[in-house]
# Entry
Amino acid sequence: PRQLTISPQTSIAVGHIWQTVASILSVRSDLDVTTVKSGHSVDVLARGVSKLEVIRQITDFGSVGVQNRVLCIGDQGAWPGNDFTLLSTPHSLSAGTVSGCPNSCWNLAPAGVVESHATLLYLRKLKVRSGHFRFSIE
# Structure
């Protein structure tokens, strides 16, 4: 009820749909929404809807206790990507586009390795020891 997803039924580029929707909504000051896009759809989100809520839920539920100890992986790290906010956290990796932030949203995958292939590469290279994680990417 707090998210509207718009998916093209034709070959219209998602970027064009995002630009149109964001333009229309930008002049509606009575609506408190954010518009983001993925590789296949555009999402209109109500205030407070964010993938950062996943981190809050994990830290509240588990024993992590510190928000910046959660590893986040997404593929749409550049604005207006739907992972932009999630990948702004300290331990974040992109499996696609990256933001301009120098402290987060790194893409460590080899050139041409993207999306699920990059995510699997990251997970295979992840080593957990004594409550810490480390990557062994050459």
Q: What stands out?
A: The chain has a mean pLDDT of 91. The helical segments are 14-26, 52-61, 115-125.
